[in-house]
Amino acid sequence: MANAASGMAVDDECKLRFLELKAKRTHRFIIYKIDEKKKMVVVEKVGEPILNYDDFAASLPANECRYAIFDYDFVTEENCQKSKIFFIAWSPDTSRVRSKMIYASSKDRFKRELDGIQVELQATDPTEVGLDMIRGRAN
């Protein structure tokens, strides 16, 4: 288990699920949370490949911070099928200050554990992580 700068460890399952998403495309998204009792980043939810962006957005809690990975499939103007792996730091304005600080201080170290992230987004409300925003950053 890796040790984050804030003292948060990273559960091995976090990296395993990410590798499955990246290499085997067995997941559409992964939601991670910090378990403050264990002082560890853990997998909270894994979305099946058949799920879409709306399912992903509905999995982000309204008042709690999370890290998320979203595998976005799209077609380019040249009609090529592509995909981009997004890392999203979800930190809603309504979440606890302590929680926001823990997530912010652990983010870079956690991200380094997930090799293959192509785009990073920081979001404090649903509009900042909307499908239009994802689409715009993918191209």
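That was protein one. Protein two is written in the same sequence-then-structure order:
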Amino acid sequence: MTSSRRHHLKSVMLQIAASWLAEETKQIEAAKAAYMAEHCPEPDFGGDQAALMEFCKKLHQSLDKIDEERYDAEAKVVKSDLEIEELKMKVKELGGVKKPALKKVRMSADAMLQALLGGKHKVTMDLRSNLKQVKKEKKEEETADAGDWRKNIEDKADRKKMFETS
């Protein structure tokens, strides 16, 4: 499609849309006029002053009634808006807080403490240096017994004789 053809089609579409908007505004104005003619008849100002005063009183009463209805409607809207906000908050509370995925950070305990406490504090987390060192005691009896094996044999032989005689 050439650019001139595209431009022509676009201008035709805009003309049609403009005509539709004009028709719609005329229909809205006609509907307003019909509504006003039906609900608000032309006032008759040809009467005396007492009739005009009565007409003004009725007009003020109808205005007061309309203001009360408007106020009640606004109060209902405000109340419902507050209730909607409370319900939204409850939904958020029930949904819980989504925790972000934590990234694995390779950091030593000393570096972590230094980052948390600041550079001026010197804290070391070398836990192995704080541990007590326990030295295992070797059993010296076994080594002594292992060296003198003949004596052990004689002791066992004496025991054997003791059980046989009894």
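The mean pLDDT is 83. Keep this in mind for the problem set.
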